[in-house]
Amino acid sequence: MDPRDLLENLKTDLTCSICLGYFTDPVTVSCGHSFCTVCLLRCRGEAESTFHCPECRGIIEEDDVLPNRNLQTVSVTGKRLRPHLLQSIVDLSVCHKHGEKEKLFCEEDQRLLCGSCSLSPGHKDHRVLPLKMAADKCRDKIKHTLNNLQRKKEEFNVALDRAARREALCDKAIHSLKQSFISEYRKVHEFLWEEEELYLQRLDQQYTDILAKLELNKTKLSQQIENLERMQLEVEDNLEKGPLEMLQDVKGTLERHEELLLQEPEVISLAWATSPITGLREMLMRFQSDISLDPESAHPHLILSEDLKSVKYGDVPRDLPDNQQRFDSAPAVLGDQTFTSGKHYWEVKVGNKTAWEVGICKDPVRRKGQVSSLSKDAWTLVSLGSRYHCFLWNCKYGIHRSEPIDKVGIFLDYDKRHIAFYDAIDGSLISSFSDMVFEGPLRPYFSPCCPNGESTQGSIMLIDVGDSH
Questions:
Q1: Strand pairing partners for 361?
Q2: Any idea what the Cα angle at residue 144 is, between residues 141 and 145, rounded to 5°?
Q3: CB 57 within 8 A of CB 30
Q4: What's phi and psi for 428, nearest 5 deg?
Q5: Please, which residues bridge with residue 127 across strands?
């Protein structure tokens, strides 16, 4: 057998099969296998009196583990002798071709050479060094590599220590950050609670003031009714008088009641003052959807922009196919998007236009014949304004007077059955619908309305995602 193979076999016999290193404090178990004491204890783990051999899985009793001092001595000796034995093998190496000692080393072919081999054509142009010089050079490279490995190991140990320290800091940091965010959100919550309470107080005060005005209005109307009833009785009495007496009294009767006849009944309108809700629009913008108009649904009188973002009423109807999707009576157009879940928000700029309708409808929705805003298939906000007044209407609150609105925000939470309309400029709530009953898809609904003598012309326009103007 080759001496190198013998050395490798010897090393295998002196090596622990667990750590693959020379034995350290070896012990031998009943099945004949030997292991380092520490390695065997690590494999034994939490086992009590019996456990399995790591090599053959045989059962080992606690009393079967015996120290093997001879194996320890042989292992130490073998570890020390191995380098010298390998060197001696090299020294005794003889070229099988020329019978000369192989004292040279070819760096290109990485093999030992004798003098004659080094002069052969195959090694003529190769870098050939004396064996000792080549070994010293190799040893220097190995030492250099070993030093680099040691230095790199130290760098990684330093990094590991730094990572461990940062792990400890991370635990402290996350607790501190959580407390900071809790504190900040608590301040925001407290601010919003205070704002909500103040807003509710204002609404209560508005309610009280409106009730007082309505009571005065009712009293005035009642007084006017009584005056009209007295006038009516006086006129009826004149009718029962003789001709001469009737003619003599009618002029004075009519003059006394002329002012009363010119009076018109007046009922005060409900005008609720709204207040901006802090941070509302910023929150809603997180759910903004990029809405475009569906030209296939547009009424023939409606003119859509090329980018399908705005619509206005045209005096002359366009020549369009009367498909099933198109509105033929209501001057309306649907959004191209369909919603079946989630939260969605979009904004519509109405500008100085005073008559418009925007909102959400079921899909499909009635498109042939007149579509009423009272329909249970639609939830819309309607402006009934004129050049001088602005009135908003919806099926929940009816008609109420409002300040002119430049931009309307529409929010849909499909899963919670919630729809809301906002003044997108100041972030105030106009109206909202909760616990709505709808199933199936929903679509945005738009109508610039038919112009009349009181309304102003113009387009309604969808605001692009990210456009805050």
A1: 378, 443
A2: 85
A3: no
A4: -105, 150
A5: none
Q: What is the pLDDT of residue 469?
A: 45
Flag whether pLDDT at 438 surpasses 50.
yes
How confident is the model over 362-408, as pLDDT tens digits? 888 887 776 655 567 888 888 876 654 566 776 655 666 677 888 99
Helix (H, G, I), strand (E, B) or coil at 34: strand
Buried b (16+ CB within 10 A) or exposed e, 260-290: eeeeeeeeeeeeeebebbeebbeebeeebbe
Task: Find the angle CA(85)-CA(86)-CA(88) to the nearest 5 degrees.
Answer: 65
- CA–CA separation, 420 vs 428, rounded Å? 11
| Residue corresponding to tokens 């002329």 | 258
User: Is the bond into 364 cis (omega within 30 degrees of 0)?
Assistant: yes
Rounded to whole angstroms, the Cα distance separating 112 from 118 reads 9
Burial class from Cβ neighbours inside 10 Å (0-12, 13-18, 19+) for residue 438 reads middle
pLDDT of 283-293, one tens digit each? 999 999 999 99
Spatial strand order of the sheet with 66-67 comes to 34-36, 26-28, 66-67
CA torsion, points 53, 55, 56, 59, in degrees to nearest 10? 0
Count of CB atoms situated within 10 Å of the CB of 66? 12
Q: What tokens does 46 get? A: 């939490």
Average pLDDT of 118-145? 82
Spell out the SS3 assignment of 130-161. EHHHHHHHHHHHHHHHHHHHHHHHHHHHHHHH
In three-state secondary structure terms, 233 is helix
pLDDT of 95 reads 76
- Rounded to the nearest angstrom, the gap between the alpha carbon of residue 89 and the centroid of all alpha carbons in its chain is 71
Strand ranges across the sheet with 302-304? 302-304, 310-313, 459-462, 343-349, 407-413, 418-423, 428-433
Neighbours of 382 (CB within 10 A): 19
Give the end-to-end CA distance of the chain in Å, rounded to a whole number.
91
C-alpha to C-alpha distance for 420 and 380, rounded to whole angstroms: 10
